[in-house]
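At this stage, I wrote out one protein's amino acid sequence and its backbone structure tokens, and that material follows here:
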Amino acid sequence: MRVVLLCRYDGSGYHGFQIQPNNNTVQAEIEQSLKKIHKKDVRIYMSGRTDSKVHAYGQVLHFDSDLNISSEAWKRAINANLPKDIRIVSAMLADNDFHVRYDSVKKTYLYKLYIGKEVDPLLINYVGHQPFNFDLEKAQSTIQYFLGEHDFTSFCSKNSSVEDKIRTVYDFSIERDSLNDNIINFEITGNGFLYNMVRIIVGTVINVANGKYEAEYIEEIFKKQDRQFAGARADAQGLYLKCVEYNNEVVNRFIKNALKYYK
């Protein structure tokens, strides 16, 4: 059977999601838990990788198993062997042709940026930092330039091996956090994201918000198709994979129902 998991984790103590030699990763922790249950190696597949220190509200995973275990029992069994900063929020059984990566149609990322000279020490692992000027209206004026289909070469790390860098951004919002006036929330939804794309977009918006250049210059950055013209990559710890959407309504309902308890 194919088991789909909705996973939530604090990435502060991990070198990203994907397994790496000699480094602790989220994937390694989950696969170790599954190995204890199955008494053999079990490979999990992810909707997308997250980098070192990046978090997830709704990472979607799947693995194949020959054990006859209910969805709720899978959640309890896997969590029993996981550290407390990684939780399986929910589990479901899916058709064997469903794939968490290849069947995704939309992903939403959230970026939290703390504005102020000093970051609250209780937030240091969960926000990016902009110590000086940040004009929210100027930041919001950049949104129009990112919406739609574009070649995001300028907003992708140079070491990316992906050749096709055309992506579509469906929604993008930049708003002050309702609970903390010092935090600006960037929420962006697209059909896919290149390596470090969200963090570079945030870094570019920061440049507009602090007056380094005008919002209109973003059009020129797209035309250049060269990483050096976009802003610096924003801090990793402010980034969260919020949710993933699929061309499968059963899976989408499963994700929506699981996430509503974890705002």
Remarks:
- The mean pLDDT is 95.
- The longest strand covers residues 104-115.
